[in-house]
What we know:
- It is a single chain.
- This protein is of the alpha+beta class.
- The protein is 36% helix and 31% strand.
- It has helices at 8-23, 28-41, and strands at residues 46-49, 52-55, 63-70, 73-82.
- The chain has a two-stranded antiparallel sheet. It has a two-stranded antiparallel sheet with strand order 3-4.
- The longest helix has 16 residues, at 8-23.
- The radius of gyration is 18 Å and the shape is elongated.
- The termini are far apart.
Amino acid sequence: MVTRAETRGEFEARMLRESEAVDAGAYDDIRARAHDYLLSQIPDGYMLKDGYFVRTDPNLPDHFYIASISDGKPTGRRVKVTAL
Length: 84
């Protein structure tokens, strides 16, 4: 069965609806879980401050790695996070 491709106008309308849903809080639970997971992965000597990762010990590297997840499951990959 062949499905019709979404037009640009339909895509833009769908993205606008999704943006409005985000603004209305439709995905707050997902965002909160992701935020909690991220905070749990920050190693000692680093912290999240004003939206940036910062080193609390200047002798540490300017980056660290966290385990990547997708749909709440580990992917087996690590993501490099830069810290100020």
